[in-house]
Amino acid sequence: MIHAIYRIPDDAGSLTWLARLPTGLTVAKGPASRIDWLFLDSFDWRLFRAGHVLRLAERDGGRRLEWLPDRTAEPALVTEWPGKAPPSWPAELGMSPLAETLAAALDIRALMPVGRATARSREFALLDDNEKTVARLHEREFAARGLAGGRRTGRFRTIDIDGLRGYGKISRRIGQAFRQAGVAALTPTDVVAFAAAANGRPAGGYSGKVDVVLRPGQPASSAARAILRDLLDTIEVNEAGTRRDIDSEFLHDYRVALRRSRSLLKHLSGLLPEAERTRARLRLQRLAASTGETRDLDVYLLHMTEYRKALPKRLGPGIDVLAAHIAAKRGKARQRMLRYFSARPTRQFLADWRRFLEQAPEDADVEDQPGALDFARARIWKVYRRIVRDGAAIDDNSPAEALHELRKRCKDLRYLMEFFRSLFPKRDITVLIGQLKRFQDNLGAFQDYAVQAETLRAYETELRAGDALPRKAEEAIEALVEQFDGRMHAARAEFQARFGRFAGTENDKRFRALFRGDKTRKGIPA
Asked: What range(s) does the CHAD domain occupy (predicted)?
């Protein structure tokens, strides 16, 4: 097994690192080889962020998928891959340990190529005084290429220590000698990062979250523009994946960025030119509306596995009918969405919005604007107090719409806290966002179950009107609706306890300390 990987300085030859080996070892040069690696990951780098590597290795005409978990240097799972194109989904690997492992790591995201590298390798056997091989070293020279091919765009060299059973101590001595010589240790994820950089995408560089570092005294309009630019980047990068229909999360992240942009714009009256603010809110709302049906249908298709598990097997054919109906609706909705994406007014707005956000501020009298910190505190505190007031007024007799409106205000609060989190102590703001998320889970569950029940009834009506509602499909839909009604009432019953924890004394102290400007910060609950 490979004990470790070390990077060789670019100006060092083989004799340099061979001289670093412990005494008493003889070096025997072995064969040379070449291997091509295509690295696969999700668009949001779920494997890389967890320290895992999935690579499609091609050597001597054979191709196999290799899984290296937790930054280990040796493949833990290997599956032969006969296809010309790499897999997009774990299910393409059939029933296998690798398929199961990838499904757990990726969830609902697809695999896609993220980098390509060619390694030219020379093997060296290390022999002891008895001429027994006690370790093998592989000197590798990596060359990265763009995914579309073309010339090499970068290179670096490594030494892999391939330890042998029973001689682990020698492998550790070799590694120690390299480290003492200042040779950097690497992991397979470093190779992924090298290959990804050559393809123009920094490994781990996308998460879908707002990632803007603000200054406390920065004019509020300047901070807002920076946040909106980051959100526009997210919109644009996810549009491409949505058009290609790689997986449903591209459209999800696209819509979240739209929603976050609209949420922030709502708070910027007097900070941005009113004409630009009004136009942006309108156009972003229309963009969101154009994507809503497709996203809703995506969600129902994603729920199909859950639906099957929730019902008796005999109703499986009924779920098949429902899934086919939803898939057909999705195809039509998606075409309408793509036409709206390509429409001239849409393209013109996005180009204009980019220019506006990147131009030098022309906002009226920036000097009289609040700083980013003061603005964030005031807006967050106002929305928080409104949530506490509205939530306290909800009882068992309140209409469902009251919970729906409260859920929207909680989203608004969470977005504000995430936009401006860089201005507050990390630990404190993280605790508060976590508390809010847990409360949102309850409100979201209530809303989700109510909508699912209503929508499934609508699908049932559509199928019946088209004379395409077999008995098992009707039974399946009715059984699901009954379950959702029960879950909705259970979520409603939990509301008071969840709200009490969110709006309770301890959490209220935290909000007051961060957002009412308590500079002493004493008495903040841990």
From this structure: 217-493
